[in-house]
Design brief:
Elements (H helix, E strand, L loop, with lengths): L1 H17 L1 H37 L7 H49 L8 H13 L3 H27 L3 H9 L2 H20 L1 H15 L4 H6 L3 H53 L5 H42 L20 E9 L9 E9 L3 E5 L6 H8 L7 E6 L2 E2 L5 H5 L2 E4 L10 H6 L9 H10 L3 H5 L8 E2 L6 E2 L3 H14 L4 E5 L7 H9 L1 H4 L4 E5 L3 H4 L4 E6 L2 E6 L1 H7 L2 H14 L1
Length: 595
């Protein structure tokens, strides 16, 4: 309970921080709306008694005596209806503010969390639960608290009125609703635990749905005739979740039926008592109507009160998923003393660096040591799975090594703020991003803070040979590329790769890393880029990862990785004379073209 109260406080802070004014307005409107129903019941009693009196007295009573109470009823009814509509608007406005605020918190947290999280399935479960609950659950806590306040205030007013008739009716009003609140609390735990356990299965269903509806898998899906197979997998996964949930709800519905019988019995007893009191003359018709309405409203208010209480209990279970995500810690941070780095002056040194992916029982990088001097062109080569791309992520400090260290101009990178450090790197990843934005924006993503990008965007595009293609698009650099939005133009994979290269060059970073930068380029473009490579990367320290040995041979130094370790290093000529792994790989590749 102590933990739940803490979560309530934290949730209410989120609600208040998202929109203090609208939150306050929501509370005020809820308090006002708790008073109007009691005023209506009291005024209806006066109207009925006045009409009864006017109809039974021997001398006629002026209509004006009945008119004023009727006008009062209409005015209060109007205020009650108007306040309900305005209250609904306030709640919607507040919910929108909170949703935007919560998405902001989620997104800010997501972009700061360590990249290694994406190697852990449990992270995706945590993210999935938080994304599902965060946008609305804190607001649900506030609404349930406000509803509970309103229900309690209204119930006290109605119970006070019913007590003037007989105390047993007030007790009956409370007791009849106890089974319902027990039911809600009991099944809140069951449903929460069920949904938490089903998170991996829910993600699996979402994945199969993406395979059936997404753009990327659409070609293989049709070519290999996989549609019906994935439909069956989706159906099996989806039904596995929903059928179990339906069984839980079915059991709860049966018990709810019994609970409703208790409420109906309480209503029957109350109606019989009020009818008897009216028949024997202890209650006027107006009083009878007032007490009947009061008991009925009391039933509604106590149901709302208990429902809000149960809702708060449910919220306390589910809101924990949101805070579990928001409280995840980043391990890739700057250790004291924190140093702001300058552009590379001397070299980057890796000293006995090791790294293992979560869940693996072997090291992807194993005691790797090397140095890269300023202005050098270094090539990383080796078989698939040798650790080349992982090593790049370690150099960029997207991951931290398990042991050993990487030093940037003699400074341990753990003492450098990661964001500041990464500003000195520009990378074309093997799985580079395709942004469904304009062609110019796709290049500008390399340095979104650039104030006057137009000239440099064009220069970067010309360097990679993609300028003429963009210039011939319907709106030139303002043409949206991709196929998600209207009036856009799709590009080939090779053309996208040229865009990615231009993006990397647009970023004015001293260290340029190219991971398989020519895998989709045509022969002419590849030849043009690599024949001018030193000119293109002028004054930058460059790291090239490629399986095309004709390209890596231009490097100042080649580092050969094998099974996470450095097998050999040297220039192209040195490695060829050595006759090791590089010689074997180069000879096999070149022999195909010499036949």
């Amino acid at each position: 309970m102590k933990e739940k109260l803490k979560l309530f406080r934290e949730s209410l802070k989120l609600v208040w921080n998202s929109s203090p004014g609208w939150t306050f307005a929501n509370i005020i409107m809820s308090v006002l709306r708790s008073v109007f129903p009691l005023m209506l019941i009291w005024l209806l009693k006066i109207v009925i008694d006045d009409i009864t009196r006017a109809a039974t007295v021997s001398s006629p009573t002026p209509d004006i005596n009945v008119l004023w109470p009727i006008l009062a009823v209409v005015i209060i009814w109007f205020l009650d209806e108007a306040s309900a509509d305005f209250s609904n608007y306030v709640r919607k406005k507040q919910a929108l503010k909170l949703e935007v605020y919560m998405y902001g918190l989620l997104h800010s947290k997501a972009i700061k969390l360590d990249l290694i999280n994406f190697e852990r399935p449990e992270y995706f479960d945590c993210l999935s639960r938080a994304s599902r609950e965060a946008p609305w659950r804190p607001n649900s806590i506030l609404n349930n608290l406000v509803s509970m306040l309103r229900g309690l205030l209204s119930l006290l007013l109605m119970a006070g009125l019913i007590l003037t008739l007989h105390w047993t009716l007030a007790v009956l009003l409370l007791v009849a609703n106890i089974p319902g609140i027990w039911l809600r609390l009991y099944y809140a735990d069951i449903l929460y635990n069920f949904q938490r356990e089903q998170t991996p299965e829910a993600r699996k269903s979402a994945y199969f749905n993406w395979l059936l509806t997404g753009d990327r898998p659409s070609r293989e899906l049709r070519l290999f005739g996989l549609g019906n197979y994935f439909i069956s997998l989706f159906r099996k996964s989806f039904l596995k979740q929903k059928e179990e949930e339906i069984n839980i709800i079915r059991r709860r519905t049966v018990i709810e039926f019994v609970s409703n019988l208790f409420k109906a019995s309480a209503l029957l007893v109350s109606l019989l008592f009020i009818a008897h009191q009216t028949i024997i003359g202890k209650l006027s018709l107006g009083q009878m109507a007032m007490f009947l309405l009061a008991f009925r409203q009391g039933m509604i208010y106590i149901k709302d009160l208990f429902s809000s209480l149960a809702g708060l209990y449910e919220d306390s279970l589910f809101i924990g998923d949101t805070f579990e995500f928001l409280n995840l810690k980043e391990s890739v941070t700057a250790s004291e003393p924190v140093i702001i780095p300058s552009p590379l002056k001397e070299k980057i040194v890796a000293d006995n660096v090791t790294f293992t992916y979560p869940g693996n029982n072997f090291r992807t990088i194993n005691n790797v040591s090397f140095e890269i001097k300023r202005g050098e062109i270094i090539a990383l080569v080796g078989p698939n799975g040798a650790g080349k791309s992982t090593l790049v992520r370690l150099l960029c400090r997207l991951y931290d090594s398990d042991s050993g260290n990487i030093k940037y101009d003699g400074i341990d990178v753990r003492n450098i703020d990661p964001e500041e450090y990464r500003k000195h790197f520009s990378v074309v990843f093997q799985d580079f991003m395709l942004y469904n934005l304009t062609a110019g924006e796709n290049i500008r993503m390399g340095n979104i803070d650039e104030k006057s990008p137009a000239v440099r965007i064009t220069a970067s595009a010309k360097s990679t040979g993609v300028h003429d293609l963009i210039d011939n698009l319907p709106n030139g650099y303002e043409t949206v590329i991709g196929n998600l939005f209207d009036e856009s133009r799709e590009l080939s994979w090779g053309e996208w790769q040229k865009i990615a290269l231009a993006r990397a060059l647009f970023r004015d970073a001293p260290i340029l890393i190219l991971d398989e930068p020519s895998s989709a380029l045509d022969a002419d473009t590849e030849y043009d880029i690599f024949s001018r490579f030193r000119e293109i990367v002028k004054d930058r320290t460059s790291i090239l990862i490629s399986h095309r040995f004709t390209n890596v041979s231009l490097a100042d130094r080649i580092i050969v990785l094998d099974k996470g370790e450095i097998a050999e290093t040297g220039t192209h000529d040195e490695l060829m004379k050595r006759g090791g792994i590089y010689f074997t790989m180069f000879t096999k590749q070149s022999s195909r073209f010499n036949k």
